[in-house]
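Lecture 7 notes: from sequence to structure.

We start with a single chain of 293 residues. Read the sequence below before looking at the structure.
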Amino acid sequence: MLKSRSKFFLHARVRRTDADEEEFDDAQAGHPIERRLNRLERVSAAYRGQINLRFNNGMLVTFESADAALLGACEMQHRCAVLPQVSRQKLALCVGIHQGVVKQRAKDGADDARELAAQLAQTNDAILISQAMLDGLNQDLRKLARPLKETVSGLAVFTIDWRREIPSGAYGGESFWPTSMHSLPISPFLYLHFGLKTVEVSETSPAATIGRDPQSDLVLSDVHVSRNHCRIERQPTGIVLTDQSTNGTTIVSDDGTELLVKNSSSALKGKGLLFFGRPFKGERRGGVRFESF
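Now the structure, written as tokens:
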């Protein structure tokens, strides 16, 4: 018998900070709202979120875990923050997250998690979460939260310092592609797993960038990582990693082979770990897992 499952509801809304949103013509302005929503969609997919509803200036996304929801929200803010603003029409991203229950049976009770998440998404360029959401986070991510004096529908509210560097331990180590995935893309292709995030290099996404630049497909905040550290792309002969960094990239295959790539290229074959800007010293934590097929 199916049971109700706990989910984490993320409500994201793009709003103008200086005028009535009804007067704003997104197409005439060059689609700045659409560009932001497209980025929110890509981030949601990377953290395995499910978009339940997309509206004119935002969306509702559900995540399986509190960690995935919060890490996704932080990346949403970073990715929108680097987009150019429209003259005299500043846009802000408001994000609210609350834990709720997905109704799976007719007798399951009503749940107002969606409405509460929407009520939390009211502060410009901020992420607000409820106590229930905070309780589901790992210890490293809880350090990003700060309590607010005001409440929402009687619930305690916390703001997240998304601009603060997130420690690698907050990502929870390796994660793997869901076992529910039965069919794989056309070869060659590759999956990068960093904690709760998955990036693919495939026929539909032929390249991925890695670095400190917020516009990278995989953003790493470690001080040893270059702004545009490396690029991994799909070529007729296979998957190739091209390093363009100061400290290089270390490839550690599952068979024990270790290779330092610095300002050069190397094929990625099989499975293993990537370390950016630092050597492998037997500690797997902080490495990015790759699977090449």
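The first strand starts at residue 5 and ends at 16. Keep this in mind for problem set 3.
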